[in-house]
Amino acid sequence: MITQLTGNGRLLLTVNENGDWNELFYPYPGQFQQLREARLGVYDIPAQRFAWLRRGNGYEIHQEPSGPGHLPESTWTGHGLRIGVRDHVHPNHDLVARVLRVRADPARPIRLFAYHAFQIAESMYQDTAYVDPTTASLVHYKRGYFFEFFSDPPVTRAVCGEHTLKGLQGTYVDAEDGRLEGRSVAHGAADSVQQWDLEPSADHEAVVRLFLAVGRSLPAVHQIREYVTDGGFARFVRESEAFWETWVQRRLPNPPSGLSGLGREVYRMSVLLLRHSTGTNGAIIASPDTRSLVAAGDTYNYCWWRDGGYVSKAMDEAGLYNNAARFLDFARRCQNPNGSFFHRHFPDGAIGSTWHPPPHLQIDQTATVIAATWHHFKRGADPDVLLELWPLVKGAANFLAAFRDPATGLPAPSFDLWEERMGIHLYSTAAVVHALERAGRIATEIGKDPAAWEHGAEEIRRAAVDAFWDPATGRFVRSLAPRDERLDASVLLALKLGFLPWNDPRASATVDAIERRLWCHEVGGLARYEGDQYYGHENPWIVSTLWLAEARLRLGDRNRCRELIEWAAAHATRTRLLPEQIDRTTGEPKSATPLTWSHSTFVDVVHKYAEAEHRGTVSEE
After folding, report:
1. Residues 569-589: pLDDT tens digits?
2. Full-model pTM
3. Least packed by Cβ within 10 Å: which of 67, 82, 265, 390?
4. 121 to each of 17, 33, 145, 413, how far by Cα in Å?
């Protein structure tokens, strides 16, 4: 499981519970996952004892993000050794730095080993790995992707080999007798091991700075290596630490009174996570987690327009205005000719995989991009932004205005926000109304005629309030065609978008019914909907619990809102990452961890809680 991460919009590195590099994405977060396996090992020379750093090998690990920048840090202790590992991705160079600090009590010589196997461009064949003795570096490459290791001090020895094919386990076995004896070049399913001979003691810390330069050509990675070696190895570590510390400090709002220290830490990590999950081209991935590849045959490493739109709005709230602008520009480039948006896209903009039949559509996604555009304008108040995005808004709004069911006047059937059911859904309908209203405001701002969209929004709203309200149960149903009366937390999100005024008694009745039925009495938190079976039965989700928090805030209960914010913070991992959902019996994270939407919703609700504290009211969406 991912426990820590760091990135720069091109490189995204994740670290797992063993302190190992888990995933290395390049050239965009979420694409491609270039790393197959990494591990650290230590050979105690006097004891003639070798171990890969894993729990149960006589070593214990403690993980805690380092400093205000939340840099990944792991500390191994055991057999009289203490090995600290801190990872950095440089903010403006495609460079990873791994700083290893070793102490030994009693003092003794040890050998430190680092093993790496790549799956370059997400294929682990046709790779090459070679050692260059003239520069004390080690290179892995295939086609247009190059990875060069170098270190301070230089390696004592490095070897290359193969894994997987021909019945081979991997070159890591060469290290297990404490001596590397492999070759200097390998191809196919290539891997490598590096060795450093160290003399740590209780009073003397042996330090290894291992660097990985990443690029699209050999000259590119060589240039980074030369830049680091000429400029001083420690300098690039300091630069990375200083940048991320300053970055976080500049992104913090005034913490709301009453929010716990843990809540503020999760907020800080959330803003960082939004930054790390956004590519320099504007793509926002749902999660860097790849574990679902085994269970479900696919990953969360895509840009969904609903997730991206809500993340974009949270980034605007947290001051990441340029990141949100890049997302909207990415959306403009990916928009379908008819104005709609495909189910999801790869981070490079190519259309992603889908399980929806044509037209591969969830109309709330198209709507969310329009809403994010208006929100972005509100935060920057720059009409030029609206001019640039006008073709996107016009195309999307015209599509939504025309995508109507002639019998009811409601939006035509599409898939719901949970991506499971075809029908006419309350949340999707509310999202369309919200988007058309915002499109009308955008039109007004730049001198265009908003009448058609404003009229369409009002028509759909009137039809929806009557069609979805069930007077027999005193609440809204979640879907029509086919009718589905199960309680669903997405109705809270519909209310958030202004589907119904909060002072309408039907709003509070609906919130009460949802909390009463979907609240998880074992560990707390709110489930998605009645009968949900995704990764367990009615597990509580972070986003649905935070939607309830905002609903309670808008209904005047600030204390309940704060309680629910703190519930979400308390169910972050030890390293402050928010999962998609929580196991209702154990309280452990389930499915994708971290989920970018969970973090963006946390940021959004914290800001609204702070706004209510300072102004006494919460602004509209």
Report:
1. 999 999 999 999 999 999 999
2. 0.97
3. 67
4. 25, 7, 8, 38
